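Ticket #4471: structure export looks truncated?
Reporter: QA, pipeline team
Priority: medium

Steps to reproduce: submit the single chain below to the structure queue and open the exported record.
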Amino acid sequence: MDRTLIQEILEVVEQAAIASAELTGLGKKDEADAAAVEAMRKRMGQIEMQGRIVIGEGERDEAPMLYIGEEVGSGSGPGVDFAVDPCEGTNLCANSQRGSMAVLAASDRGGLFNAPDFYMKKLAAPPAAKGKVDIRKSATDNIKILSQCLGLAVSELTIVVMDRARHKDLISEIRSTGARVQPISDGDVQAAIACGFAGTGTHCLMGIGAAPEGVISAAAMRALGGHFQGQLVYDPAIAQTSEWADYTKEGNIARLNEMGITNVDKIYEADELASGENVVFAGSGITDGLLFHGVKFEIDCTRTSSLVISTLDDTARFTNTIHIKDGAKSIALS
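Actual output as written to the record:
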């Protein structure tokens, strides 16, 4: 990977966000996802690289595009692995709710953990708390540590948790400390990354979400110098999801073993989930969110708001782009 790829990676997520945003609020989550997938793949195909999808839309027999193992790009140039979520928060997009975005992580070949389609217990926190909070500790202990590291009273801390039945006890414990809980319905990637920036009002992400999205969050937090840890969840009794109604703990462990994951209880640090020498995160808002605005359609242009974080040059770039339409006559600055 090199710096010349950063601009093109930005354009990949911008095009996916625009395509999906065309369907915002129409209740068509599958169609919005499909539009984002097609736009992302098309733009990737124009990049001089030997790209490969390591986290994507599923295996080849389940997804026609951006499936795991698919080769993308021109076929020449640097080898790049991608973890993609073309429409993160499909329900949010379908219902025109906050937090949906097009997102990806990229690294040198072999630099991203090939996370199975499981769940993951996650802990994200600001750089000041890196290596001090720990997923092995209780929520109560981690909140005390956060308070000390950030110089904030516990009552000033906001902890983001997915609004799921499995988090009932976690939410109760957090509130018992005096900290605030911000429940979210979907899309925990943006919440995790927001922990890496001061002034967002988000101080920590706790709880269980999708494992593939955990890798994307880890890549961003590694590049930011923030804290991220993940632990795979394989017990249906802990995941508490209808998707696993017919699954068993033993069966899930067997699946992980078949994928080469023998230490099923391993706790992964950010630099293990995103281990490549060079790591890039890119996200573009579909709807308004914690970090950036959603796509805005105007008479003469379309506006996107995006973020690219890179270890190649140790930068986090917030970018507002005006995509000029054919025959445009008047474009306002904002």
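Status: closed, not a bug. The export was complete when the record was re-opened. Leaving a note from the reviewer for reference: The domain at 119-273 is CATH 3.40.190.90 (D-Maltodextrin-Binding Protein; domain 2).
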